Amino acid sequence: MTAVRLIVTDLDGTLLGPDGQISEADADALLEASERGVHLVVATGQPARWLGCLKPLAAAHPHVIVSNGAAVMDLTSGALTQVQAIPGDVVASVVARLRAARPDVLFGSEHGDGFRIANRPGRSANSIPPASW
Which helix (H) or strand (E) element contains residue 98? Predict the structure, then answer.
């Protein structure tokens, strides 16, 4: 039998319980696996700022893929170590075309340090810092 070398898990509906937390038993099992040399990867559509629920796994030093694959987070520091952002010219083109079709459209964008909402052309974006969520 081949030894387990890697565990990859999603969060919502997989690792997290209905309370949005990792059970003590699951955290203990993943920490033990890490101590035995098994690598841990968590992949989620959630933004990095919502992942306080992973603190029980910090000692396992998991790779955490966030925002539907747009970034990788270092769980220990909370820093984004890799980011694959949509190029600004692509965003500007999409925004212009959508506003031409629907002038009342609202836009939201996720950034490493929070979420921003731009509601009308010519108005500055409203920033919603992570601490307010």
Answer: helix 88-101
